[in-house]
């Protein structure tokens, strides 16, 4: 039998559930022996399954069936099973914030500005909106200019438009080897080639970036210097300076995603402040306020302004007038700053709880944050672990979703934003029990 037919057969077994996510396939020699075929044919069939994204091979440990989600799939486990407890999404919404927002928006709707909101918003917004957002984004010594500000419907739209503005199909874009999955998916959708750049404890490695660019030209990078999703790492000043130098020397553009940076009150200045002509800075209110009450905000380098605005227009991703006016009102009334302070307090409490409860495990927990990164010990594999937690009613995200490139680390992201604290505590106790029990422990349904 041809190796492709053998792969087809195993693919069907995966499709019908006879082979389950996380299940280890028999050693290739045994598989070959059972079928009376050459070991090299078995090897090729296994390689074909890996190539199709249905299985993953790990040196010295064997080949395992992948969870039923291609690496770029999103939003993940909860999409299929909405009743699971949500340790998957980072959607921080405080119980009382609707009341705060309602008070603020009531005033907006009484205003004469309702007339203005009914006209079509453009990516540039108006001069008052640009000024409000420029002031809001000021951080440390960084003072973005109002005429550098533009808007999109969301942070994702801003990232997509920025990627399309700096690269054309076939171009290579450097990503931290673990990255925001939608950014990777949007790059692929634009026909770009995501190139994994290794990270260390300080974030993207500049040496690895140099090597990737030297081996074949990159068109730009996408990077999260502060409170990286998923690893929670924050780049120290020295690394930002090195990265800025690299951008200046090569002329490459970085898309800096600052969407989680509000959680780090003491974070170093944005990468954009070190090299304003080489960085497109992106922020949104999805995490600071709520995913449904957001717009995307971009700070553009003057030389790229027209190019990115054209991309925002051509992709038709300007925010609608109501959303833009509402967000600017929430900012200028001080509500966003107030919520930021409250969310930092909430996130600190949650992450402390996670650090305390998961202390026996290898977790990266920031001082303040809405997610932690859990590295798993052998014999756990990320997808098997997620499957075991799903069995106990808890959703979270396996590392391959975030990974660019091949060998994904054995880790999961645990989001802490959604459940009430007492429920979170109980869920983390289950996660600990699962982790310590090992993959062969029977599930208590
Ligand atoms: C790193 C990162 N950037 C951007 C976004 C999306 O922002 P928005 O909801 O405004 O599109 C997310 C959402 O989870 C994110 O994790």
Structural commentary:
There is one protein chain. The protein has about 450 residues and is of the alpha/beta class. Helix content is about 45%, strand content about 15%. It has a seven-stranded mixed β-sheet with strand order 4-12-11-10-9-5-6, with helices on both faces. It has a four-stranded antiparallel β-sheet with strand order 13-14-17-16, with helices on one face. Helix 8 crosses helix 13. Pyridoxal-5'-phosphate binds next to helix 8.
Helix content: 40-55%
Rg: 23 Å
- Average pLDDT figure: 91
What percent strand?
A: 5-15%
Helix and strand content put the structural class at alpha/beta
Largest sheet: 7 strands, mixed
Terminal residue distance: 41 Å
Oligomer: single chain
Bound molecules: pyridoxal-5'-phosphate
Query: How many helical elements?
Result: 17
Low-confidence stretches: 69-73
Compute the number of strand runs. Answer: 17
Overall outline: globular
Strand arrangement across the biggest beta sheet: 4-12-11-10-9-5-6
């Amino acid at each position: 039998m041809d190796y492709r037919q053998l792969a087809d057969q195993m693919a069907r077994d995966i499709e019908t559930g006879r082979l389950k996510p996380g299940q280890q396939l028999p050693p290739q020699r045994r598989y070959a022996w059972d079928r009376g075929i050459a070991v090299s044919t078995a090897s090729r069939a296994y390689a074909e399954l890996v190539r199709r994204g249905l299985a993953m091979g790990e040196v010295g440990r064997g080949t395992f069936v992948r969870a039923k989600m291609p690496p770029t799939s999103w939003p993940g486990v909860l999409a299929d099973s909405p009743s699971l407890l949500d340790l998957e999404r980072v959607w921080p919404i405080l119980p009382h914030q609707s009341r705060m927002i309602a008070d603020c928006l009531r005033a907006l709707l009484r205003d004469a500005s309702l007339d203005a909101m009914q006209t079509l918003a453009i990516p540039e917004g108006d001069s008052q909106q640009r000024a409000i957002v420029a002031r809001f984004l000021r951080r440390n010594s960084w003072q973005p200019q109002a005429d550098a500000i533009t808007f999109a419907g969301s942070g994702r739209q801003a990232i997509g438009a920025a990627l399309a503005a700096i690269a054309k199909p076939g171009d290579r874009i450097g990503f931290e080897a673990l990255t925001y999955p939608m950014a990777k998916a949007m790059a692929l959708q634009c026909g770009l080639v995501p190139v994994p750049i290794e990270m260390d404890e300080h974030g993207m490695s500049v040496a690895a970036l140099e090597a990737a660019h030297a081996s074949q030209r990159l068109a730009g990078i996408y990077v999260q210097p502060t409170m990286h999703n998923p690893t929670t790492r924050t780049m120290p000043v020295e690394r930002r300076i090195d990265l800025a130098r690299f951008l200046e020397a090569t002329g490459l553009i970085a898309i800096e995603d600052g969407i989680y940076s509000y959680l780090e009150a003491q974070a170093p200045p944005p990468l954009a402040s070190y090299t304003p002509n080489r960085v497109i800075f992106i922020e949104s209110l999805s995490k600071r306020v709520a995913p449904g009450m957001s717009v995307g905000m971009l700070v553009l380098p003057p030389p790229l302004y027209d190019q990115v605005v054209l991309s925002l227009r051509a992709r038709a991703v300007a925010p609608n007038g109501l959303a833009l006016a509402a967000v600017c009102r929430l900012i200028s009334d001080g509500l966003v700053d107030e919520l930021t302070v409250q969310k930092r307090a909430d996130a600190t409490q949650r992450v402390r709880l996670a650090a305390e409860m998961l202390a026996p495990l290898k977790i990266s927990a920031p001082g303040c944050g809405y997610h932690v990164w859990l590295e798993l010990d052998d014999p756990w594999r990320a997808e098997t672990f997620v499957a075991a937690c799903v069995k106990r009613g808890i959703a979270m995200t396996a590392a391959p979703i975030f990974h660019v490139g091949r060998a994904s680390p054995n880790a999961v992201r645990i989001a802490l934003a959604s459940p009430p604290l007492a429920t979170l505590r109980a869920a983390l106790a289950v996660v600990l029990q699962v982790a310590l029990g090992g993959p062969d422990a029977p599930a208590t349904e």
